[in-house]
């Protein structure tokens, strides 16, 4: 006799929130890769629905891992916790709009190198969803006619971009694009160093390697002395 298992009871037999959001994204011709922000196509109340949907699916994953979430006091609330962690914390940069960024005119027409850092960040790799922990430095050669942004906003924008499943090469480019769009500097440099837990906790299980990526744009590409100043001052930061 065939051992047919009943389909798990699902509260999502109707169109789910993720179905609706996906349909909207496709209609708008938008990508929804792991590191894309989709906040503008999520309607009011849908984040609550998404949280419940992820909880339900996560409970199924735990079931597939043969963990008895009904009788294990430690994992009984895990599906709900993981859903909240993904949507409201570690991947919040996908579901939340960009933080408000105050800008003000460059009244003193500053056009000397400024460096912000180290800014600590937390992310996760798109491949295994393992943590990535790192720090970065941003070098800016401001444009005398463009606006400046508040110092704390560099860290806030960085957190917004890093709180998504990422690969480091794309994360550093995304951050550079976002900063260029907002402050239109004459030059922008970023150095990012990160520790990838997919190489520590699992896989090769090597404690040592740190991945370093850098981006140099505008004046930092053309002016070797400026580039050197940034790299030297960063070491002292
Ligand atoms: N280029 C790049 N690679 C990354 C990053 N984060 C993780 N990786 C690597 O991406 C690879 C994941 O793809 P696969 O090689 O298919 O995965 P795997 O077979 O589980 O690999 P192992 O980690 O070697 O066990 C691993 O080599 C990771 O170390 C990143 O930010 N950039």
TrEMBL record:
Pathway field: Cofactor biosynthesis; 7,8-dihydroneopterin triphosphate biosynthesis; 7,8-dihydroneopterin triphosphate from GTP: step 1/1
InterPro entries: GTP-CH-I_C/QueF (IPR043133), GTP-CH-I_N (IPR043134), GTP_CycHdrlase_I (IPR001474), GTP_CycHdrlase_I_dom (IPR020602)
Keyword terms of this UniProt record: GTP-binding, Hydrolase, Nucleotide-binding, One-carbon metabolism
SUPFAM superfamilies in alphabetical order: Tetrahydrobiopterin biosynthesis enzymes-like (SSF55620)
Keyword Transit peptide: no
One Gene Ontology molecular-function label: zinc ion binding
Reactions catalysed: GTP + H2O = 7,8-dihydroneopterin 3'-triphosphate + formate + H(+)
GO biological process: one-carbon metabolic process; tetrahydrobiopterin biosynthetic process; tetrahydrofolate biosynthetic process
One cellular-component annotation, GO: cytoplasm
Gene3D superfamilies in the record: 1.10.286.10, 3.30.1130.10
Enzyme Commission number(s) of this protein: 3.5.4.16
Record domain GTP cyclohydrolase I: where: 55-233
Quaternary state and interactors: Toroid-shaped homodecamer, composed of two pentamers of five dimers.
Stated name of the protein: GTP cyclohydrolase I
Source organism phylogeny: Bacteria, Pseudomonadati, Pseudomonadota, Alphaproteobacteria, Sphingomonadales
